[in-house]
Amino acid sequence: MSTWANLGLQDSASPLMEQLIFFHDHALLILVMITVLVGYLMFMLFFNNYINRFLLHGQLIEMIWTILPAIILLFIAFPSLRLLYLLDEINEPSVTLKSISHQWYWSYEYSDFNNVEFDSYMIPTNEIANDGFRLLDVDNRIVLPMNSQIRILVTAADVIHSWTIPALGVKVDGTPGRLNQTNFFINRPGLFYGQCSKICGANHSFMPIVIESVPVNYFIKWISNNLNS
Ligand code: CUA
Question: Which domain holds residue 183?
Fold first, then answer.
């Protein structure tokens, strides 16, 4: 999760988020190179006295400064498209989680396991534990197995919400009447926090998401305990 003064991206917990961070760094590097070059040129303009009264056109330089930026843009466009299609790929998921958004809480269903279902509400500030995170912890966490391909289906019961986990590189809109799909792979155990990221109304800030990533055998224990109840 993000803590104080963390202005960059969170550490990734999935291969796709790792790729997103690599792409971000790549694009940022190109951006810095362009900014430095243009900044240098603009700065040096203050100090030159060259005047050319008869300069009206320059075919060669115009050809260069049109084609060169186009080539630089391709270096961003191709990796971007590669990632876009990689994010869209569904790789034979072993668990499906259905996430339904309401004003203003999430509810979840494990359709593969006799439809285990529960609501997940934020813990209010006056009830939070000493080691809890304000506005971020929930009463019922999603438990998911690590090192497994997981599919999530997102929909909404009332208005548009968005199921977003930064560390996993997941952001899917929950839209009433639609069922959206994405998938991810958690490569380490831990707690992963997320928030709704569509402006869905007054309590938009108060419907966080918490994933508890656990080893597969632990997940099987958890799901079978919930099947009995
Ligand atoms: Cu739900 Cu914003």
Answer: 95-228
Instruction: Classify each residue of 69-103 as buried b or exposed e, where b means 16 or more C-beta atoms within 10 Å of its C-beta.
Output: eeeeeeeeeeeeeebeeebeeeeebebbbbbbbbe
Ligand 1 contact via 161 beta carbon (within 6 Å): yes
> From residue 19, how far is each of 7, 22, 61, 173, 206 by CA, in Å?
19, 5, 37, 21, 30
Determine if ligand 1 sits within 6 Å of the CB of residue 198: yes
- The verdict on residue 64 lying in a domain is yes
* Residue 163, ligand 1, Cβ within 6 A: no
pLDDT digits (tens, 9 = 90+) for 36-59: 999 999 999 999 888 888 888 899
Q: Give the type of residue at 14.
A: S
CA 103 to centroid of ligand 1, rounded, Å: 7
Number of independent structural domains in the chain: 2
For residue 160, the ligand 1 atom closest to its alpha carbon is 1
- Confirm whether pTM is higher than 0.90: no
Q: Which pLDDT score is estimated for 168?
A: 96
Nearest alpha carbon, ligand 1 atom 1: 161
